[in-house]
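INFO batch 0412 | record 1 of 1 | parsing
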Amino acid sequence: MNFRKQTKQESIGFQIAPMIDVVFLLLCFFVTSQIFSQWETEINITLPTAQTGQTPQRLPGEVIVNILTSGQVIVNGQPLNRDGLGSMLQRLATVFPGQPILLRADKATPYEQVIGVLDLCRQADIWNISFATGVPEG
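INFO prediction complete | emitting tokens
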């Protein structure tokens, strides 16, 4: 006596749920890696070189302040005047004490423009400032 039912094995078919999981994880990985690799290279700045220059480790939440040869200041792709930059730095220092700032000035930028940005950082009580340099070729 055989009491087992004779069932036909149905093919499982294509499982969509695991495929969606894999695609979602890949999407999360690439979006995250794109955010952390952003270096604002779309702004055409020729950095001065230094013999000891090296590519620094980016700090989390680091704000990049770009200073063009004309003296124009660009932060997050938006041009700012002196008052706008000062108020932004004040807000940053209030909300995030110890906020790291990276200054990227073109090598032809007048020195007084860089000092003006440094003065605004000092007025906002921002002390964690670093300067971007290029690595010499050769």
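INFO post-check: The longest helix spans residues 16-37.
INFO record closed
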